[in-house]
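ingest -> validate -> predict -> emit
validate: passed (alphabet ok, no gaps, 178 aa)
predict: started
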Amino acid sequence: MRKLRSALASSAVAALSVSGLMVAEGTAHAVESKCTDPQTRAFPTSGLNTDVRLQVCILESPSSPASTDYRTYTAVVTGSFTDGGAGSRKFDNFDLEIRLEHRPLGSTTDSVFKKAVCDRTADVNRLGGGTLRCEAALEMHVNNRRNVSGDATVHYDLDADGKGPLEPWGLTGSPHFS
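emit:
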């Protein structure tokens, strides 16, 4: 049984590591996640296009101290970029917006429980490549677990294109916990 639990924990850590999420091995069996497939976009920036690859996930973990009635839900958008500015300006703005959402029973639309906006403009302009991450977490009663999900949007403004902020990139949201 101990070997099976260790193998399951290692599998969970490997699965979350691939998606860019890191979980301590001792707690891997306690974290549940649902993620989208990676979503990619090539932004038409000066020089080489800046390529961005993002994944949207919803994570469920026990509250601390451990409670059978409450869990912490974290919506996270995580990923990477290549051909960033490496010291030159490619974006006037590059924000990741993540939303922790809930779909009430009988509804076809989600309502936002919590939202975070993370400005990554400096990172994408300063580095040639790197990681991106933004998250929003909330502790809630397990009865609200039904239909909890994560959704994300990228807001951006290309440098020197004279157009201002462009149409946001709406990412596909994570599957719902049900």
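Residues 2-18 form the longest helix (17 residues).
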